[in-house]
Design a protein that fits this description.
Layout lengths: L9 E7 L4 E7 L6 E3 L5 E7 L7 H4 L10 H9 L3
Parallel strand pairs: 1-4
Antiparallel strand pairs: 1-2, 3-4
InterPro entries: Ribosomal_bL28/bL31-like_sf, Ribosomal_bL31, Ribosomal_bL31_B, Ribosomal_bL31_sf
Family: Belongs to the bacterial ribosomal protein bL31 family. Type B subfamily.
Keywords: Ribonucleoprotein, Ribosomal protein
Length: 81
């Protein structure tokens, strides 16, 4: 590999903001936030909206986000309960 052209590959904590689930892995992503992991060391922190802890495919739970009653309006319009 050529020196000086590749991004830094380092340990990073990814945190799912909807479930507060976090995991430590390696990545080249850049972030300004930092957090302390269970080993007492400080790592860069990346906040994500969806992870395996909150995605319906992995959890088996469907979560409907209702924006201004759109789901209710749809169900009334098409006679669904």
């Amino acid at each position: 590999m050529k020196k000086g052209i590749h991004p830094e590959y380092r340990a990073v904590v990814f945190q799912d903001v909807s479930t507060d689930f976090a995991f430590l892995t390696r990545s080249t992503i850049k972030t300004r936030e930092r957090t302390t992991w269970t080993d007492g060391k400080e790592y860069p922190l990346v906040k994500v909206e969806v992870s395996s802890a909150s995605h319906p495919f992995y959890t088996g739970k469907q979560k409907i986000v209702d924006t201004a009653g759109r789901v209710d309006r749809f169900r009334r319009k098409y006679g669904l309960s």
